[in-house]
TrEMBL record:
<dbReference type="InterPro" id="IPR011990">
    <property type="entry name" value="TPR-like_helical_dom_sf"/>
</dbReference>
<protein>
    <submittedName>
        <fullName>Uncharacterized protein</fullName>
    </submittedName>
</protein>
Length: 884
């Protein structure tokens, strides 16, 4: 038995053998009766252990000496009391320590649950709160609202204001939308209108204060160098004292009335931190407001304190530690992650630490569907990974999150931006494709930076004409907001202007009637263009030969250029145009197949691949291969982004197809719609417009979309040039390190290897693709196109040739539903009339006369106008044939 420490006195007195030690003789003589036992006592002749236990039982401890009492007495516990550690046995100590730790963990868990419930019920900011503007820096605020919500809500609020300009709710709605875009001047106009109607509204006054601070103190977040000199804003040092004294004292007086709200207190604290008002007289010390916030909610209180600590010299470490403690205590709340990530990423440039913080937020917070910071946290993680040179990993994160959440095209923007910044030519096609798609999906507030990075990507692929056009567009948007980028654009445009101007001049001469008179000038300019871009010069030279009537030479020149160009298919477009004019459809088919196969190169953008397939479908129609043309067009649905904003059942069924028979019979499948979306987002529902949650069918549909170029499918579709029977088509080896997404549980899609057997007659059931888990999926294979033109083409083939009429009808219905995404009203109206005409023709051929008559009545007033002559003749012919 292990000897207890408190028995050392007894051991010393007896030497452990019962023999008296002289050193203790005096002490033992004081109470000599202590060791005098009766003759019949069982301790006479007892062993040491028994003797020691008897001695221990005779010791008396004062009731006030709790320390010794705890050691000497066997503890007595109540049922609900945590046991105290025993000092008698290490095993018991360990057992009771484990019980104590488990008890503490359970207690902490229930405390967190209680705090979470209290937060959700009491202190969660309202959806219309402006607290996010105090948490997020710079342009990050644009990432937390879907672009379609911005566009559609603008239409709704504009319509309300057109009917009733006195609607303060609509004015406030417009204010919020422009604030999300970063256009604070326009937002101020609308919030002032709202305050004129409802001057004492707390929310409106709070937003007015926030917008004033954003416009006044913008230089805290944006460097003066990034702004044009004529539009630089003042800050506290250079600001007019008269202006300041007019604006903020009145606001502070109003906001002070509503000091029970977190966002109001945060606004006042931020204003106090600017040191532009006299502390104690005009405004309280920022610590006062932080303490008030902490009284309402501990978490927000500490995050607010971190702002104060970061603003004080030498206190950054405390601010950082405060945020770290917030993350430990409240791991499922996002604001501390965002603040700490911004500190590491922007302030101290510690990208390794920023990656750790972003990764933790990505795991803990991004799984929540109702987190308004969802997209921002994903983007932050990708940015940090990119800075750590994990390029493939960063792109995969963004790609997968876009597949799961296609209502956030901001993911596409960052895919394109990071791919361009990597300066890797293997990613250039991905960059151009995603940025071009961004222009279709993103709101105009993103067009400046989109065009900027698109111009860089075009330059990387030596597409100088396209780059010059993108630069002009970017400069138009960024001229008054980003001086640095504007200066870069001006310099780049100056270097390209001469060559691009020469190219445009030649094309204008070729279109003019005086072409033959200027042939020598054209040739001189053409040689000049070849110095800038050899391929563009060769294509232009072929155009000159064609215009001179030397058609065979022009075709040979284009054939040579097409053969030599490995990552450009521009010569094919011109070659096919010339062959079409020559009505050589068989040659068109041959070169069309080559074009489609070359377009599968990942260094070419997805938009080029889609264009090549649509042209090839047109060639198949000219060669009377209608079924194959329809299949090629239907296969493009696989890269169409799923949307909950429109009902497109036919497109969704095409996406579900796993065999060619499924493609052919898509109109026979049950048409279970995913539901029509109501102009709102499940992430950040807007004002009083409610948003439906993700349905299970929507989540299942996401897994069926491959978002990649289907080499295997289209190789089969184009026919004779299939590989050897024993050959298997596989994807190229990965271009980057093999990063594993070991914490995210991503759903992956893998290129299926398809073995072709020429003797297999039942290719109708050949699988074309299916979703699979894969850690080796190439990020360069990612492809997305929201252009619904393939649906219109399906409808046109069905209507004009009288085949697959139900396919054509369903395709046109989906196309009409998707036209709401078209930004140009004029183009939208014209496309709708053309689609309705096809629908009318199909309905006539299906003998659905009543519905056809209703469609005819709808388009008759428009199609009879000037500019629709051919279509009007076709329309009248079908009306006459079916007595409509």
């Amino acid at each position: 038995m292990e000897t207890p420490k408190f028995s050392i006195a007894v051991i010393g007195a007896t030497n452990g053998l019962g023999t008296q030690n002289p050193f203790f003789s005096d002490r033992l003589s004081i109470n000599s009766n202590f060791f005098q036992f009766p003759e019949e006592s069982p301790l006479i002749g007892a062993d040491d252990d028994t003797f020691l236990m008897y001695c221990k039982s005779q010791l008396k401890i004062s009731a006030r000496n709790s320390f010794l009492k705890q050691k000497i007495e066997r503890p007595v516990f109540k049922i609900d009391e945590t046991p105290r550690p025993s000092h008698f046995s290490p095993e018991k100590i360990n057992e009771r320590t484990i019980k104590q730790l488990d008890s503490k963990r359970k207690k902490r868990f229930f405390q967190e649950e209680f705090l979470s419930e209290r937060f959700d019920e009491t202190h969660k900011p309202e959806e219309s709160s402006c607290l996010s503007w105090f948490i997020i820096r710079n342009n990050g605020i644009k990432s937390i609202i879907p672009d379609f919500e911005l566009k559609e809500c603008k239409l709704i609020f504009n319509e309300i204001l057109t009917k009733n300009i006195k609607s303060h709710e609509a004015n406030f709605g417009m204010c919020r939308l422009y604030a999300y875009e970063g256009r604070y001047g326009l937002a101020m106009i609308y919030i002032k209108d709202a305050l004129q109607i409802s001057p004492n509204d707390k929310l409106y006054n709070l937003w007015y204060a926030m917008l004033n601070m954003k416009t006044i103190f913008e230089l805290d977040n944006i460097s003066q160098k990034s702004l044009p000199s004529g539009s630089r804003m003042w800050c506290c040092g250079s600001r007019s004292a008269g202006q300041f004294s007019v604006v903020f004292p009145q606001l502070i007086e109003k906001l002070t009335i509503f000091q029970g709200e977190i966002d109001v207190l945060w606004c006042l604290m931020t204003l106090s931190l600017k040191n532009c008002l006299e502390i104690g007289r005009e405004i309280e010390n920022p610590r006062f407001y932080a303490a008030k916030i902490k009284e309402i909610d501990n978490y927000y209180g500490y995050v607010a304190w971190s702002d104060i600590l970061f603003s004080e010299e030498g206190q950054e470490a405390k601010g950082r530690d405060t945020l770290r403690e917030c993350i430990m205590q409240y791991p499922n709340r996002p604001e501390a992650y965002i603040k700490l990530w911004q500190y590491y990423y922007y302030n101290v440039k510690d990208f390794e630490q920023s990656e750790d913080i972003a990764c933790e937020a990505f795991i803990r917070v991004c799984g929540s569907d109702d987190s308004e910071y969802f997209a921002l946290l994903c983007i932050n993680y990708a940015k940090s990974c990119f800075k750590m040179r994990k390029i493939n990993y960063a792109l995969k994160i963004l790609q997968q999150k876009y597949i799961e959440n296609p209502e956030f095209p901001i993911f596409l923007y960052h895919i394109g931006r990071l791919s361009t910044k990597s300066e890797d030519l293997a990613l250039n096609g991905l960059a151009i494709g995603t940025l071009e798609e961004c222009l279709r999906q993103c709101d105009k507030c993103w067009h400046g930076p989109i065009y900027y990075w698109l111009a860089k990507a075009y330059l990387n692929s030596k597409q100088h004409v396209e780059a010059y056009g993108a630069m002009k567009q970017s400069y138009k948007y960024l001229e008054n907001s980003d001086q640095r980028k504007s200066h870069d654009l001006k310099s780049a445009m100056k270097s390209l202007k001469e060559g691009v101007s020469a190219l445009k001049e030649v094309e204008e001469i070729l279109k003019s009637e005086s072409f033959l008179k200027n042939i020598d000038k054209c040739k001189r300019l053409c040689n000049k263009i070849k110095g800038l871009n050899k391929l563009s010069g060769e294509v232009l030279q072929a155009k000159i030969l064609w215009s001179e009537g030397r058609k065979e030479e022009a075709i040979r020149e284009l054939e040579s250029s097409a053969y030599m160009a490995s990552t450009r298919i521009m010569p094919y477009f011109e070659l096919l145009r010339c062959l079409e004019l020559s009505e050589d459809y068989l040659s068109m088919r041959t070169y069309g197949k080559e074009m489609v196969l070359k377009s599968m190169n990942s260094q070419l953008p997805c938009t080029t691949w889609v264009k090549a397939n649509i042209i090839f479908a047109k060639i198949l129609v000219k060669n009377n291969e209608l079924d194959r043309a329809l299949r090629v067009l239907k296969a493009l649905a696989k890269i169409f982004p799923i949307t909950r904003y429109a009902e497109i059942p036919f497109t969704l069924k095409l996406q579900e197809s796993s065999t060619y028979q499924d493609l052919d019979e898509a109109n026979n499948l049950p048409r279970n719609s995913l539901g029509v979306y109501s102009f709102s987002s499940s992430r950040n529902s807007y004002a009083s417009i409610s948003a439906p949650a993700y349905s299970q069918s929507y989540k299942d549909q996401v897994k069926k979309n491959t978002f990649r170029r289907n080499q295997e499918l289209l190789t089969l579709l184009i026919g004779e040039d299939a590989p050897h029977p024993e050959e298997t088509l596989e994807s190229n080896p990965d271009l980057y390190e093999n990063d594993e997404l070991d914490v995210t549980g991503f759903k992956k899609f893998q290129n299926l290897s398809i073995e072709f057997e020429f003797n297999n007659e039942d290719l109708q059931h050949q699988e074309i693709m299916k979703p699979m888990h894969s850690d080796n999926e190439l990020c360069t294979e990612f492809a997305v196109s929201s252009d619904p033109i393939f649906l219109y083409k399906i409808g046109k083939i069905a209507a004009m040739h009288g085949i697959n009429l139900m396919d054509g009808l369903y395709a046109i219905e989906d196309y009409l539903s998707l036209l709401k995404f078209e930004k140009s009203i004029a183009m939208k109206e014209r496309a709708a009339v053309k689609a309705l005409l096809l629908k009318f023709i199909i309905l006539c051929q299906l003998n659905n006369i009543d519905t056809a008559a209703a469609v005819a009545a709808e388009i008759d007033p428009i199609i009879s106008q000037v500019g629709w002559a051919k279509k009007y003749e076709l329309f009248k012919d079908f009306k006459a044939r079916h007595n409509i």
